[in-house]
Write a structure and sequence with these properties.
The protein is mainly beta. It has one domain (8-66). The protein has no helices and five strands. It has a three-stranded antiparallel beta sheet, with no helix packed on it. Strands 1-2 form a two-stranded antiparallel ribbon.
């Protein structure tokens, strides 16, 4: 995933705080781990690329906040 809307500014790159809601490593839609979630934060710019594991039947959400 990349962040095309985190555009470069005239005075340098804009930084954003990404709050990431993603599947836990053990998540699966079948069984007791189906609600496993990890919430983490990272600082990102338009140049960053995130690789996120998505469980079967799972998903993720990312909230960006300008720094």
């Amino acid at each position: 995933m990349f962040f095309p809307h985190a555009k470069h500014g005239q005075r340098g790159e804009h930084h954003h705080r990404a709050r990431i809601y993603r599947d836990a490593d053990t998540s699966h839609y079948l069984g007791p781990t189906r609600f496993g979630i990890v919430i983490e934060q990272r600082d990102v710019t338009a140049r960053d690329v995130l690789s996120l594991n998505m469980a079967p039947g799972g998903g993720y959400a990312i909230r960006l906040k300008a720094q």
